Amino acid sequence: MAKKKKKKSPSSIALNKQARRNYEFVETFEAGLVLKGTEVKSLRQGLVSFMDGYINFKEGEAWLVGIHIAPYDHAGYTQHEPDRPRKLLLHAGEIEKLQTRVEQKGLTVVPVRLYFSRGKIKLEIALAKGRNVHNRKEELKRRDIARDTARQLADY
């Protein structure tokens, strides 16, 4: 009897925690990234910051802007630019769909997380609707109430 192979879940490099807090996700997509060698090595060390990252559309292409990938320590003279725009690898239909929904419905596309999938670095992006402060407070209240009830049920 042969053993079944376990499916490995993609190992996460970095997570944009502010995205889940500030946006309500409508739909998520997986995109590849065009990277340089030193960027890949730096990402393997987890040296990335999502602070002001967003997706921009130009001439039928999607670009990741505002993500900071720190320079790689052992690169020597062939260093990459930390804040350069990086091209996203998506199907033309996906780019068109995202671009039209952003233009028509006032939605935005935000980077959610970077991860390895079969040795390749992938970016999870989300079509999202911005939350206002009132919505965020309601979400916190709802989570607090759920946590309290779970505690009380556990004590009971």
Write the layout of secondary structure elements.
Layout: E1 11-15, H1 17-22, E2 23-33, H2 37-44, E3 48-49, E4 54-58, E5 61-65, E6 68-69, E7 86-89, H3 92-105, E8 108-117, E9 120-130, H4 133-155
Antiparallel strand pairs: 1-8, 2-7, 2-9, 3-6, 4-5, 5-7, 8-9
Descriptive account of the structure:
This protein has 156 residues and is of the alpha+beta class. It has one domain (11-131): Beta Barrel (Small Protein B, Chain: A), CATH 2.40.280. It has four helices and nine strands; from the N terminus they run E-H-E-H-E-E-E-E-E-H-E-E-H. It has helices at residues 17-22, 37-44, 92-105, 133-155, and strands at residues 11-15, 23-33, 48-49, 54-58, 61-65, 68-69, 86-89, 108-117, 120-130. Strands 1-8-9-2-7-5-4 form a seven-stranded antiparallel sheet. Strands 3-6 form a two-stranded antiparallel sheet.
Primary descriptors:
globular; 156 residues; single chain; 4 helices; seven-stranded antiparallel beta sheet; alpha+beta; Small Protein B, Chain: A
Low-confidence sequence ranges: none
Number of strands: 9
Give the percentage of residues in beta strands: 35-45%
CATH superfamily: Small protein B
Radius of gyration: 19 Å
The string of secondary-structure elements, in order, is: EHEHEEEEEHEEH
**Helix percentage:** 25-40%
Report the CATH C-level class. Answer: Mainly Beta
Specify the biggest β-sheet.
7 strands, antiparallel
Oligomer designation: single chain
- Average pLDDT level: 85
CATH topology: Small Protein B, Chain: A
Note the overall shape.
globular
Please work out how many helical segments DSSP would assign.
4
What is the spatial order of strands in the main beta sheet? 1-8-9-2-7-5-4
Structurally, how many domains make up the residues? 1
Structural class: alpha+beta
CATH architecture: Beta Barrel
End-to-end span in angstroms?
46 Å
